[in-house]
Amino acid sequence: MFQRWKESITPTDVVMWMIGGSLMLMVIWGSVATLAAGKYTGRHWIDFLIFGLAQGSIYALIATGYTMVYGVLKMINFAHGEVFMSGPFTAYFVADAMYRTDFLDTHPFIALAVVFIVAMAVSTMIAYFLEKIAYRPLRGAPRLIPLITAIGASFFLQYMFRGLYGSNFQAYPVFKIFEGSWMIFGIRILKFQVVVIVAAIVLMVALYSFIMLTRVGKAIRAVSEDKEASSLMGINVDAMVSTTFVIGGMAAGAAGVLYALMFKQVHFFMGFIPGIKAFTAAVLGGIGNIPGAMLGGIFLGLIESVGPSLFLDGLGIVAPYQLKDAIAFTMLVLVLIFRPTGIMGERLAVKKA
Amino acid sequence: MAMLEIEHLNTYYGHIHALRDVSITVEKGEIVTMIGANGAGKSTMLKTTSGLLRPRTGTIQLEGEELTRLAPHTIVTKGVVQVPEGRRIFGQLTVMENLDMGAFTCRDGGRIQKNLDRVFDLFPRLKERSKQVAGTLSGGEQQMLAMGRALMAEPRLLLLDEPSMGLAPVLVDSIFDTISRLNNAGTTILLVEQNARMALQVASRGYVLQTGQIVLSDSAENLASNEMVRRAYLGE
Prior knowledge:
Chain A is mainly α. Chain A has 15 helices and four strands. Chain A has a single domain (48-352), classed as ABC transporter involved in vitamin B12 uptake, BtuC, CATH 1.10.3470. Chain A has helices at 2-7, 11-37, 42-73, 80-100, 103-106, 108-135, 144-165, 191-213, 215-225, 227-232, 237-263, 272-285, 290-312, 324-338, 345-348; strands at 170-171, 181-184, 187-190, 265-266. In chain A, the strands form two sheets. In chain A, strands 1-4 form a two-stranded antiparallel ribbon. In chain A, helix 3 (42-73) packs across helix 12 (272-285). The longest helix of chain A has 32 residues, at 42-73. By secondary structure, chain B is an alpha/beta fold. The model of chain B has no long low-confidence stretch (mean pLDDT 90). The chains are: A mainly alpha, B alpha/beta.
């Protein structure tokens, strides 16, 4: 028994487990030291958690786009971050105009609805044409080719929007009604964070219900499993692929507005980091799995927000918050090494009888 | 007018000439079978008919209506539905969702319900398991689901690709029994089978395919007693 166990372990495994183990030790050591030092109070942790939840629900919305596209086309749409950027960047000009005419303050809800509609419409359009122009002609090409195209499309979109709207950071107008905070269950929470979390949850529930319950949603899942068999059922595979991009684009556009509400600025490059983070979240949750992507996004947001202070502060690292990206990508590497199927990956492994 | 009329069909896989000038007809209400060895082009034949493969030359007509070069999902709406080889059910969807997908082209709730009742009547097993994830069904149940799913699309012509493949002998009998019952209820069937003995029992006519060419075509009884067929495909 022990003999067999010994034979199945390679030196690589040992090294990997050592890396994993030492990271684990570091995390535990850091957490204990941080908590023992008592630098942060309960209030701080709650703030970190809520910020993480808000940030994470944005990642989650973007991640659904990655994961659904992976489902139907088995490709990573690396231009999805730009789909996310295009909506709020365009909507900025609408928001700014409304701000200048005071409409934003007199009719904040209508204004917010307009911003959402513009952003979602633009992102949806970009996603739709991206698939139609850049990916559809390459259907059936070796898998590396659409991947390279996706990276090219990503750059193309970035610099197209830079050309269109300029390379400056644009300050998003502030919705006055979302300033300040509410007391919820005795906890003070910033209003815009509540808005972000609630909006994201509503959107995710809507998206998930669409995929699980509607005729088209079921067809998208069928296409994800077997394109040829789907077409033999009378399902127009191309139309379903387009629909998938449209839904992903809508979610990304909405996520972009929430991001702009939170960070209050837009820029042609703003999609890059959230895009890669959301990709990480999709992998964390198990790529191809929609609830997995949502959970992965929220989990990543939480880790990124709580992690630096909790794990790193106690180790004597100065300004640990600068290292939040390092934590996010270390998570990606660890997942790829130890659980390549992701958190929810096992549910995907249905036996093919 | 014949239900299905295929004339001078030539299909290629890259440079491989998979179907050579194949012409067949299927009359309304018939079961026609195509028998032949592995790689003779039987599946290619069905895939070309259902639109998954495009023929280089030749025509496919359904009751006079041109099907050649239509997309597979359009051909389904014309009433030609294929049960693919290896069943190809959607393993992660439930049994009910699989049947829903079969009814994808139909928007009329009442008709869907009628077809569903018919499928459940034919395969009571599927009704019991309707909420189960299809990937967890046994091989026989999956074949029932694959056929049930196809029936949801109200086929005028049903294309069956190796329905008995990989099934226990008991199940093979029941699948062929179902095929006869479907045919008695009015569905025209084009059946591709390795199990030539069973296929010739249910079919009224048959074609023998060899390296992409039709070498023999006759009534099922005559084929079953043909010397060449007996030696090559019935193992006698």
